[in-house]
């Protein structure tokens, strides 16, 4: 088993993709809208991936947040509100927490039905005025305490439904003034302010099982390299100050914030101390470079990966999705 996650091009694996997966044996597969049709198709796709790698518990990931980021379309699944909308539900903080938990628990129900066992949620970034809108309403609020509290509730909702949460984008993307999908953001804020705001929700949730890095340069910490590729950010901030010892995966290595060959990107990422490389777009030429750089998943990274999947509950006994949806709708109908 190799320390990377790959994507695929369509609703089913091509012959070339099956051969690549069989040869490279990635830890996981990540799905996007291009890979999603309906329940039957998704079950077949996730099952086929697991058959090829020979692991019944192999990680299958998705970004199913709600709001703007929902890979599973509303024609077959419920559309969920954004994090900001959930945070504004009800007339008291406990009602917002209820809405966040119910939405995450329902998302987990949808994912578990089709064989997806890892969701890249919650977003723990704290947006600031002047920051790029790429985070925006994907965040639970603009203050670290609210983001930390509701982010944990979302993670608990996913785990209760048998899905591993991946919090993102550590150590923070909310202050970035650029979208790292398109260019490299540079943050010039002093470290003490970053610790007080951006890093705080991650530190409060450091015991969660998995995290995704930020392709953001923090000039006060490492002026030359984005967090994903920075040994200083990974060791001193993510593992050190934040105290996260779970499975650390990169954000998508095909994003334009990064440059160089895909093998070079992956090698720099592993050298920085990130456990698992993520490559999303399904381009086998690019993915081959990532796979070539990916070591066997062993030692501490393998322990972290195993613990991450072990944290999720296999029991969904007593959960009524119809009742949960009704409760969520009732809470959302109550304005703050």
Summarize this entry quickly.
The chain is α/β, with parallel strands linked by helices and 336 residues long. The protein is built from 12 helices and 13 strands.
What's the helix and strand layout?
Blueprint: E1 2-6, H1 15-24, E2 26-31, H2 39-53, E3 59-62, E4 64-66, E5 69-70, H3 83-87, H4 93-113, E6 118-119, H5 144-160, E7 164-165, E8 167-170, E9 186-187, H6 191-196, H7 200-204, E10 210-213, E11 217-218, H8 231-241, E12 247-252, H9 262-272, E13 276-278, H10 284-293, H11 299-310, H12 321-333
Parallel strand pairs: 1-2, 1-13, 2-3, 3-6, 6-7, 8-10, 9-11, 10-12, 12-13
Antiparallel strand pairs: 4-5
Helix pairs in contact: 1-10, 4-5, 4-12, 9-10
Explain what you see.
The protein is of the alpha/beta class and 336 residues long. It has a single domain (2-331), classed as Glycoside hydrolase, family 3, N-terminal domain (TIM Barrel, Alpha-Beta Barrel), CATH 3.20.20. The chain is built from twelve helices and 13 strands. The protein has helices at residues 15-24, 39-53, 83-87, 93-113, 144-160, 191-196, 200-204, 231-241, 262-272, 284-293, 299-310, 321-333; strands at 2-6, 26-31, 59-62, 64-66, 69-70, 118-119, 164-165, 167-170, 186-187, 210-213, 217-218, 247-252, 276-278. Strands 7-6-3-2-1-13-12-10-8 form a nine-stranded parallel β-sheet. Helix 1 (15-24) runs parallel beside helix 10 and helix 4 (93-113) packs antiparallel against helix 12 (321-333). The radius of gyration is 19 Å and the shape is globular. 52% of the residues are buried.
Q: Give the overall shape.
A: globular
Numbering strands along the chain, what is their spatial order in the largest sheet?
Answer: 7-6-3-2-1-13-12-10-8
The sequence of SSEs as H and E is EHEHEEEHHEHEEEHHEEHEHEHHH
CATH superfamily: Glycoside hydrolase, family 3, N-terminal domain
Rg result: 19 Å
Instruction: Examine the coordinates and then state which fold CATH places here, giving the name of the CATH topology.
Output: TIM Barrel
Roughly how much helix do the residues carry, as a percent range? 40-55%
Please indicate the percent range of residues in DSSP E strands (runs of 2 or more). 5-15%
Report the oligomer.
Answer: single chain
In CATH terms, what is the architecture?
A: Alpha-Beta Barrel
- The figure for the number of domains is 1
Number of strands: 13
Give a short account of the largest sheet.
9 strands, parallel
